[in-house]
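Below is how a single chain appears once it has passed through the pipeline. First comes the sequence as given, then the structure the pipeline wrote out for it. We keep one example in the README because the format questions we get most often are answered faster by looking than by reading.
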Amino acid sequence: MQKLGKYFSVFVILLYFFLGIFILVSPRFQYLPKGIKIIFSVFLFLYGCYRLARIWTKSRENDGE
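Resulting structure:
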């Protein structure tokens, strides 16, 4: 069951990265100023990196036990 949770977490992280790219380059968000799109995309990238780091450290701690 833990393996399924890890795969789901990785899927969510990839979703954050793809959502950041989508907001940055998609024509659906033309009404937003470019600065707002960049800030929101960077926030999604950084949050994805944060989640990835947490999963990686948690995985290393579990392997050490």
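Helices lie at 2-25, 34-64.

See the next section for the split statistics.
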